[in-house]
Design goal:
The chain contains seven helices and 13 strands. The protein has 257 residues and is an alpha/beta fold. The chain folds into two domains: 62 residues, GMP Synthetase, Chain A, domain 3, CATH 3.30.300.110; 168 residues, Rossmann fold, CATH 3.40.50.150. Helix 6 links the parallel strand 10 and strand 11. Helix 2 crosses helix 3. 38% of the residues are buried.
Length: 257
């Protein structure tokens, strides 16, 4: 059975290995019956690397890899191969935005083309948002999307590795930090705590099986203790599946010192 994501004008389909070419084309034609879909691409590999990129193969419709996508009243444009974007996180982005107050200074790490940053800016209208992203092309689209959504007075984009960029922000100190991090071994919690103060709220995204989620949360407490910081975990919520028996979790933290 084929799975697919719709990113505005583009549908990206993941077929089982045994799918034949005529089956793929039939599915593509079926998807194009939805008038909003103009292009159908086949996903040919898993999300990989720190930039979380994919490879696709053209199946039907207009030949483009540039998506025009709308969610939560916000407009986004990006290249589906070079910029990671999950439409399945649309509700997550809105839920996180609703946690934020107008008085907050917000940091978004691993910000991509700025979906979290823009949804937060449009929904919560905080004082400022710093949006940090490693990928140069993602940052280019982020800048365009910020202008497109008329929130350039709130969001500042910084391109680079969070381990290099975050230490330069230590004087700023943030009230709220969002960490939609890649599925990597490093938690990057040390960097987030480096720009936190007492009372800072952190939304951390981690990946594990259901059996291991408590161990993952306990690991964050232990990591904070190593650098002489205290954090409290308020909630651990499932935020989607990434593979059979492996889930994305939203861990809501507060910094206590």
């Amino acid at each position: 059975m084929a799975n697919y994501d719709i990113l505005g004008n583009i549908a990206i389909v993941k077929f089982p290995k045994e799918a034949k070419k005529n089956e793929k084309l039939e599915k593509a034609r079926e998807l194009l019956e939805n008038k909003s879909i103009k292009t159908v691409l086949e996903k040919t590999n898993k999300v990989s690397g720190r930039l979380r990129t994919i490879k696709t193969k053209y199946l039907a419709g207009e030949k483009t890899k540039i998506a025009s996508y709308k969610e939560n009243g916000c407009l986004f444009k990006f290249n589906v191969e070079t910029c990671y974007f999950s439409p399945r996180l649309a509700n997550e982005r809105l839920e996180v935005a609703k946690m934020i107050m107008k008085s907050d200074n917000v940091l978004v790490m691993f910000a991509g083309v700025a979906p979290f940053s823009i949804v937060i800016a449009k929904t919560a209208k905080p004082k400022k948002i710093v949006s940090v992203e490693l990928g140069k092309e993602c940052c280019k689209y982020a800048e365009e999307n910020i202008i497109r959504n008329k929130v350039e007075n709130i969001i500042r984009v910084l391109q680079g590795d969070v381990k290099r960029i975050i230490p330069k922000l230590e004087k700023e100190r943030f009230n709220f930090i969002v960490m939609p991090r890649p599925n990597l071994k490093d938690s990057f919690l040390k960097q987030a705590l480096g720009v936190s103060k007492k009372g800072t709220r952190i939304v951390y995204y981690g990946f594990s099986s259901e059996d291991e989620k408590d161990k993952m949360a306990a690991g964050l407490l232990k990591e904070a203790k190593k650098i002489k910081r205290k954090i409290k975990i308020n909630r651990v919520l499932e935020a989607g599946d990434i593979a059979p028996y492996e889930h994305r979790y939203r861990i809501e933290l507060v910094v206590n010192n």
